[in-house]
C-alpha cells in the first residue's frame, strides 16, 4: 500500500516534469530566459510577497468579524437591519471584485482622506468584499445547531451575547475552520487585484521589477510560483481540517 | 403550583392549534398532560414556559403573568426538559450544568460545581461528570438534562415527553428519576404517553384533543373517564400497550 502510493506519486511527478520540460523546449525565446535578472530585486519582491501574506491574514480576520456582524444583521428582529444587510449582499455579489475595490478607493477612501494609505484602504475594501462570503459560512455552520438546543438556551435565560459566546461560537468555529482556510486561499488569490488601487503587494512589486529588469516572462513565472507557495499549503491544510472535523465529534 | 389559563389561543399560520383553552389549578404538585398526537400538548407547554407567545388570552404560572412586560427573569424560575436531550455537545456533563448556574444565576464557580456534583450524586450520575455528552447513553443524557434543569431550583419544571426517544429499558431509568421529583415535592408539568407512569407520578390530569382541554381532574379520573373522547383514547392506548 505504502510503496504503491510512492510509485503513483512518482508517476504524477514525472508527468509534470515532462510537461514543464516540453513547454520549455517549445518556448520560442528560451535562449533568452534569464531568471538571474530578477536577483537584484529579490528584497523588493520579498517585501511584496510579505505584504500579500499580511493583507491576507488581516483581511481574513476583519472579514470574519464583519461577516459575523452581517450575520447578526440578517438574523435581526428589525426588518430595516435585515434590509441593510441584504442590500449590501447584493452590491457585493453583483460587482466584479476589481470594480468594487476601485469604487471603495475613490468613493470611500479618498473622501476620508485615506488616498495615500493604500494598504489600509485595500484591506478595508477587501474585508468589506469578503464579509458576505463569511456571513454565509456563519449561516451554514449555524444549521448544525438544532432548534431544540436554541429553545433550550432561551428557556435557560441566557442573554444573546452569552448564547453566542459560550454555546454557539465554540461549537461552530470548529466546523468553520476548513471553509475559513478555503476563504483564505481565495483572499490570497484575490489580493492580486489590489494592485489596481496601488497596493504594493506581490503583483505590484513584481510588475515593477519586470519593467526595470526587462525579465518579463521570468517575472510572471516567479509570480506564479510565489502565489502557489502560499496557496498550495493552504489547500492542503483545508483538506486536513476537513478530515479532522468530520471525526472531531466522535473523538 | 398555580396554573391559570384564560381563553388561550394559538395558531401557526392559519391553522389553529390551541382553541380557547382555559383552566384554573391551585396547589398542584404534579400535572400530567395526555392526549393524541397533534392535540397541542407541546404547544401548550411551550406557551407555559414562554418559549413562544400566545396569540390571545392570558396565562399565569404561580405569581407570574406571562405577558410582554414579563421580564426574562421568568426563565430563571422555570426548567424545561425536551423530547430529546439538549445537552450542549462541546461541554462536559458538569460544565453543562454549571454554565447556567454561573452565567445566568451568577453563582461562583465553586458554588456551581458543588450544586452540580451534589445533584449528579443524588441521581447516580457522578461517574459521568467529566464526560462529553456523546459518551452517554440516551437515558443518561436525558437524566442529565433533568438534573441540569433542577440545578437552578425551578419553581416549576416542564417536561415534554422526556422518554419518547428512548427504548423501554432506558425509559424506566428516566421515569424513576422523575418519580424522585415527586418525592422531593418539586412541582412539574409533564406531557407523557406513559399512562401507568402518569398514574403513579401525577396528582392531576389534563386530557387534550384537537387543541382543547376535553377533560381534567384528579388523576383518579383515569379510572372512570367521563368524556367519550378520553374513554376512546384510553382504550386505544391500552390496545397499544398490549401490543408492545
Ligand atoms: N412550529 C410549528 N409550526 C407549524 N405548525 C406547528 C408547529 N408546532 C406544532 N405545529 C402543529 O400544531 C399542532 C399541534 O402540535 P403539538 O406539537 O402541540 O402537538 P402534540 O400534542 O405535542 O403532539 P405529539 O404527541 O405528536 O407531540 C400539530 O398539528 C402540529 O403540526
Ligand atoms: Mg408534542
CA radius of gyration of chain A: 23 Å
Mean pLDDT of chain B: 92
Q: What is the assembly state of the chains in this entry? A: heterodimer
Q: Structural class of the secondary elements of chain B?
A: alpha/beta
- Enter the CATH topology name of chain B: Rossmann fold
Largest sheet of chain B: 6 strands, mixed
Mean pLDDT of chain A: 92
Number of domains of chain B: 1
Strand content of chain B: 25-35%
Looking at this structure, what is the CATH superfamily of chain A? MetI-like
In short:
Chain A has 251 residues and is mainly alpha-helical. Chain A is built from nine helices and no strands.
Write the layout of secondary structure elements.
The complex is a heterodimer of chains A (251) and B (244).
Chain A lengths: L1 H25 L15 H33 L4 H16 L2 H13 L8 H25 L4 H10 L3 H31 L11 H12 L2 H33 L3
Helix pairs in contact in A: 2-3, 2-5, 2-7, 2-8, 3-5, 4-5, 5-7, 7-9, 8-9
Chain B lengths: L2 E10 L2 E11 L4 E5 L6 H8 L7 E6 L2 E2 L12 E4 L11 H11 L5 H14 L15 H14 L4 E5 L7 H16 L3 E5 L3 H7 L2 E6 L2 E7 L9 H16 L1
Parallel strand pairs in B: 3-8, 3-9, 6-7, 7-8
Antiparallel strand pairs in B: 1-2, 1-4, 4-5, 9-10
Magnesium ion binds next to helix 1 of chain B.
Descriptive report:
Chain A is mainly α. Chain A has helices at 2-26, 42-74, 79-94, 97-109, 118-142, 147-156, 160-190, 202-213, 216-248. Chain A has one domain (41-250): Orthogonal Bundle (MetI-like fold), CATH 1.10.3720. Helices cover 79% and strands 0% of the residues of chain A. Chain A is flat and about 75 Å long. Chain A starts with a helix and ends with a helix. Chain B has a 6-stranded mixed sheet with strand order 6-7-8-3-9-10, sandwiched between helices. A 4-stranded antiparallel sheet of chain B has the order 2-1-4-5, covered by helices on one side. In chain B, helix 2 (93-103) packs across helix 3 (109-122). The relative contact order of chain B is 0.17. Chains A and B meet through helix 6 and helix 7 of A and strand 6 and helix 2 of B. Magnesium ion (MG) binds next to helix 1 of chain B. Magnesium ion is lined by residues 41-42, 160-161 of chain B.
Amino acid at each position: 500500500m505504502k510503496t504503491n502510493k510512492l510509485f503513483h506519486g512518482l508517476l504524477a511527478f514525472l508527468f509534470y516534469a515532462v510537461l514543464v520540460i516540453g513547454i520549455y523546449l517549445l518556448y520560442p525565446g528560451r535562449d533568452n530566459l534569464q531568471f538571474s535578472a530578477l536577483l537584484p530585486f529579490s528584497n523588493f519582491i520579498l517585501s511584496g510577497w510579505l505584504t500579500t501574506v499580511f493583507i491576507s491574514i488581516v483581511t481574513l480576520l476583519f472579514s470574519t468579524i464583519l461577516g459575523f456582524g452581517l450575520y447578526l444583521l440578517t438574523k435581526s428582529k428589525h426588518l430595516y437591519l435585515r434590509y441593510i444587510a441584504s442590500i449590501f449582499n447584493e452590491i457585493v455579489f453583483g460587482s466584479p471584485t476589481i470594480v468594487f475595490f476601485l469604487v471603495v478607493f475613490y468613493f470611500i477612501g479618498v473622501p476620508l482622506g485615506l488616498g495615500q494609505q493604500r494598504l489600509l484602504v485595500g484591506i478595508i475594501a477587501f474585508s468589506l468584499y469578503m464579509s458576505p462570503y463569511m456571513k454565509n459560512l456563519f449561516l451554514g455552520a449555524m444549521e448544525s445547531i438544532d432548534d431544540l438546543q436554541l429553545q433550550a438556551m432561551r428557556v435557560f435565560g441566557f442573554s444573546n451575547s452569552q448564547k453566542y459566546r459560550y454555546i454557539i461560537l465554540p461549537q461552530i468555529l470548529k466546523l468553520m475552520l476548513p471553509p475559513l482556510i478555503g476563504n483564505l486561499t481565495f483572499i490570497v488569490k484575490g489580493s492580486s487585484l489590489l494592485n489596481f488601487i496601488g497596493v504594493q503587494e506581490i503583483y505590484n512589486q513584481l510588475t515593477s521589477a519586470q519593467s526595470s529588469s526587462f525579465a518579463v516572462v521570468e517575472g510572471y513565472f516567479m509570480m506564479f510560483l510565489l502565489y502557489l507557495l502560499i496557496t498550495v499549503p493552504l489547500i492542503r491544510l483545508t483538506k486536513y481540517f476537513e478530515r479532522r472535523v468530520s471525526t472531531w465529534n466522535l473523538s | 403550583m398555580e396554573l391559570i389559563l384564560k381563553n388561550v389561543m394559538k395558531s401557526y399560520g392559519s391553522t389553529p392549534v390551541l382553541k380557547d383553552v382555559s383552566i384554573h389549578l391551585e396547589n398542584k404538585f404534579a400535572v400530567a398532560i395526555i392526549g393524541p398526537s397533534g392535540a397541542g400538548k407541546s404547544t401548550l407547554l411551550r406557551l407555559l414556559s414562554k418559549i413562544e407567545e400566545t396569540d390571545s388570552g392570558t396565562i399565569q404560572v404561580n405569581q407570574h403573568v406571562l405577558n410582554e412586560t414579563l421580564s426574562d427573569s421568568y426563565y430563571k424560575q422555570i426548567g424545561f426538559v425536551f423530547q430529546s436531550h439538549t445537552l450542549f455537545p462541546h461541554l462536559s456533563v458538569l460544565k453543562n450544568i454549571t454554565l447556567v448556574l454561573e452565567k445566568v444565576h451568577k453563582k461562583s464557580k465553586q458554588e456551581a460545581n458543588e450544586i452540580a456534583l451534589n445533584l449528579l450524586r443524588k441521581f447516580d450520575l457522578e461517574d459521568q461528570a467529566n464526560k462529553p455528552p456523546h459518551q452517554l447513553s440516551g437515558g443518561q443524557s436525558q437524566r442529565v438534562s433533568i438534573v441540569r434543569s433542577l440545578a437552578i431550583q425551578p419553581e416549576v419544571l416542564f417536561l415534554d415527553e422526556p422518554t419518547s426517544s428512548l427504548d423501554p429499558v432506558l425509559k424506566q431509568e428516566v421515569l424513576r428519576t422523575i418519580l424522585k421529583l415527586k418525592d422531593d415535592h418539586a412541582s412539574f408539568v409533564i406531557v407523557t404517553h406513559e399512562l401507568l407512569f402518569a398514574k403513579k407520578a401525577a396528582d392531576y390530569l389534563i386530557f387534550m384533543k384537537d387543541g382543547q382541554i376535553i377533560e381534567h381532574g384528579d388523576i383518579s379520573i383515569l379510572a372512570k373517564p367521563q368524556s367519550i373522547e378520553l374513554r376512546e383514547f384510553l382504550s386505544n392506548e391500552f390496545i397499544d400497550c398490549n401490543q408492545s
